[in-house]
Write a structure and sequence with these properties.
By secondary structure, the chain is an alpha/beta fold. It contains 8 helices and 5 strands.
């Protein structure tokens, strides 16, 4: 029996593509002091972290993440623990990896990773933050608020939108997450959790249409 892969509804595709592109920072990857993989339900974070380590982009890799309602089933021992296991299985030396198993949000990811690096006396003037594709902009804004002096580059596992949806296996989950992360760009800046980011009119309009269509489970 053939299973049809999940697809984005045609009537929402343009809006989903708009948000997908907005959240991607389009940073050029280059060597840095440290790679930091932010915990989530997406194993792609561990995959890109492992790939960039093998490409010589950093000598030290931090995985940070406990669990959230969306990750407990996939990573019962914790996000950072499973990411570390993936990286080691795929050739990253154990000694190159540090893990934080306590962070439960992006702000804690940044703060706890920074503290862990200081504890181990690892210089971190520049970092690559690795996250879900649609978390890049929020991760960047959070890092620049909490750690303004660090030079930060954002990266994600390189998949097309359709391939990413297929890898997650749940179209609505991805669409809900995109809508939720867009809401947080304004909200978290207003709350002082992140630096302000420009949201173009077409992005706001796409966000509103998707929220009005019911993709709201990740709204605050």
């Amino acid at each position: 029996m053939t299973t049809t892969p999940p697809t984005i509804p045609a009537e929402h595709r343009a809006d989903v593509e708009c948000l997908w592109d907005y959240h991607h920072m389009h940073h050029e990857i280059r060597p840095v002091d440290v790679g930091i993989g932010l915990g989530s339900h997406d194993l792609g974070v561990a995959k890109v972290a492992t790939d960039l380590y093998h490409r010589g982009m950093y000598p030290t890799l931090v995985f940070t993440g406990a669990n959230a309602p969306t990750t407990t089933e996939a990573f019962p021992r914790g996000e950072a623990v499973h990411y570390r296991e993936y990286a080691i299985t795929h050739g990253v030396p154990t000694a190159a990896i540090l893990i934080d198993t306590q962070a439960t949000n992006t702000g804690q990811n940044i703060e706890y990773a920074r503290a862990l690096l200081a504890k181990h006396q690892v210089p971190a003037r520049s970092v690559i933050l690795m996250s879900r594709p649609y978390q890049q902009r929020r991760a960047y804004a959070t890092c620049k608020k909490l750690w303004p002096e660090v030079d930060v580059i954002c990266a994600s596992h390189q998949l097309s939108l359709d391939d990413y949806v297929a890898s997650i296996g749940d179209t609505k989950k991805v669409m809900d997450m995109l809508v939720g992360d867009t809401q947080r760009i304004d909200m978290y800046a207003e709350l002082g959790f992140a630096i302000p980011q420009d949201i173009p009119d077409q992005v706001r309009a796409a966000y509103t249409r998707l929220a009005d269509a019911g993709f709201t489970s990740r709204l605050v």
